[in-house]
Design a protein that fits this description.
By secondary structure, the protein is mostly helical. 80% of the residues lie in helices and 0% in strands.
């Protein structure tokens, strides 16, 4: 118990003192996760909306596939990206393996199905409600898609938030493609795993507390934005 108390207070001192290694790890984690979620949002929103609005052969199967891909095993995604970016892989000449870019790619592959599946369900519900009205106004397929995305923009924040939670907590995929290299690809989750195995509990605890605070802050911000939107738009 005394060891845990000492580790806890040491972790607090690292956080309050803005330890250089701690700050570097957190900043890299935020950079990688936010980049991955931003890219996944650009891919997932139109993909999910298109599956919800447009009619094409196999539409139902694509929807089922998106839901299934939400549970992609991170290590399998990491292995796939590793094989693509390794020297013997098709993208090996780019030299992206064991870089933050490789970690962004892996996280993006994990997050995109989450955002796309959530968007598909949200836009499908809106389309069912407004389909007749949109047809009566002569709104085309593309305009319908973007109109429904805009109408459901605040609800879609929940899906984006879920994607950010998945990205920020990821360990398996990023350690395979990033290598957990000090001051290069070492992020919060991989550092927690490494330092815990080494017995360096203060740094692991500090990073764990920061990760929890970060997730709480993102959730609180999203709730405030949604409540503000309800008051403004009714």
């Amino acid at each position: 118990m005394d060891d845990f108390r000492a580790a806890f207070f040491t972790a607090l001192s690292l956080m309050v003192g803005l330890d250089r290694d701690l700050v570097a790890i957190v900043c890299l984690s935020l950079s990688v996760s936010l980049s991955a979620v931003g890219l996944a949002t650009l891919l997932g929103l139109p993909l999910g909306a298109a599956v919800a609005v447009w009619r094409f052969p196999g539409q139902a199967m694509v929807g089922i596939l998106l839901n299934a891909l939400m549970g992609l095993p991170p290590v399998a995604v990491g292995l796939l990206v590793y094989l693509l970016l390794s020297r013997a892989g098709p993208l090996g000449t780019l030299g992206l393996l064991f870089t933050p870019t490789a970690m962004v790619i892996a996280q993006c592959l994990l997050v995109t199905p989450i955002i796309a599946a959530f968007t598909r369900q949200t836009v499908a519900d809106l389309h069912e409600e407004y389909a007749e009205q949109l047809r009566s106004l002569g709104v085309g397929p593309w305009r319908t898609l973007w109109t429904l995305l805009w109408d459901g923009r605040f609800s879609l924040l929940t899906g984006i938030l879920a994607g950010f939670g998945r990205a920020s907590a990821e360990v398996g995929a990023v350690i395979i493609v990033g290598g957990n290299i000090h001051r290069v690809t070492r992020v919060v989750t991989t550092t927690i795993a490494l330092e815990t195995s080494k017995g360096n509990l203060p740094l692991a605890l500090a990073l764990g507390m920061i990760l929890m605070l970060l997730v709480l802050a993102v959730n609180a911000t999203t709730m405030v934005m949604q409540d503000a939107a309800r008051r403004v738009y009714g």
